Amino acid sequence: MYFYHPGSNAVSTQVGFNLFALGHRQNYQEKVYEEIKYVLGDTERDITTDDVKKLKYLYQCVCETGRITPNVVVIGRKIHIELNLCGYTIPAGTDCYISPFSIMRDPKHYDNPEEYDPEHFAPDKVKNRDPFAFVPFSAGIRNCIGSKFATLELVVSLAYILRRYRVISMLPEIQNRPIPEFSLKPSRGFPVRLERRL
């Protein structure tokens, strides 16, 4: 149960954040839809792992949504050895708290970090970026054990939804700010309308 609950809650929340974000950005949503049609064709067949590897732009959108609205509000670590960091000495035994939200909105790593832009995760941008600048699942040896599975679930779930429906967000983003609880949550849910694609 321990693995199931955090994983299912995190994925369902991220599905909502993704749909809400794309519902406000029809141009990105249309690009995702065209990619899904190209990869899957007009069939209703199941999505395979080979298909997931080809859904590169959808993956970029998943990463961008995770950057803008990460589930993890704070990462806690205990410093086991004295550490010198940016001219400061951190004694051994200190509890340290890191904000993924701040890291992933740092203009040193992302152009226009406050803007939702899947191009932040274009291959040429990612290859030159510090790997610790993207930490929606934490990072290093203590990162989330289910991060790869959660990402797979997100891509597959979103592909199933977006190949059948156009998503339209029903509330301005400014009126639905994320709030930090145990994990990040929308203040007013994910009010979207689904329109069946023909």
Automatic annotation (TrEMBL):
<dbReference type="GO" id="GO:0016705">
    <property type="term" value="F:oxidoreductase activity, acting on paired donors, with incorporation or reduction of molecular oxygen"/>
</dbReference>
<dbReference type="InterPro" id="IPR001128">
    <property type="entry name" value="Cyt_P450"/>
</dbReference>
<keyword id="KW-0560">Oxidoreductase</keyword>
<protein>
    <recommendedName>
        <fullName>Cytochrome P450 family protein</fullName>
    </recommendedName>
</protein>
<dbReference type="InterPro" id="IPR036396">
    <property type="entry name" value="Cyt_P450_sf"/>
</dbReference>
<keyword id="KW-0256">Endoplasmic reticulum</keyword>
<comment type="similarity">
    <text>Belongs to the cytochrome P450 family.</text>
</comment>
<keyword id="KW-0479">Metal-binding</keyword>
<keyword id="KW-0408">Iron</keyword>
<dbReference type="GO" id="GO:0005506">
    <property type="term" value="F:iron ion binding"/>
</dbReference>
<feature type="binding site" description="axial binding residue">
    <location>
        <position position="144"/>
    </location>
    <ligand>
        <name>heme</name>
    </ligand>
</feature>
<keyword id="KW-0349">Heme</keyword>
<dbReference type="GO" id="GO:0004497">
    <property type="term" value="F:monooxygenase activity"/>
</dbReference>
<dbReference type="Pfam" id="PF00067">
    <property type="entry name" value="p450"/>
</dbReference>
<keyword id="KW-0472">Membrane</keyword>
<dbReference type="InterPro" id="IPR050196">
    <property type="entry name" value="Cytochrome_P450_Monoox"/>
</dbReference>
<dbReference type="GO" id="GO:0005789">
    <property type="term" value="C:endoplasmic reticulum membrane"/>
</dbReference>
<dbReference type="GO" id="GO:0020037">
    <property type="term" value="F:heme binding"/>
</dbReference>
<dbReference type="InterPro" id="IPR002401">
    <property type="entry name" value="Cyt_P450_E_grp-I"/>
</dbReference>
<keyword id="KW-0503">Monooxygenase</keyword>
<dbReference type="InterPro" id="IPR017972">
    <property type="entry name" value="Cyt_P450_CS"/>
</dbReference>
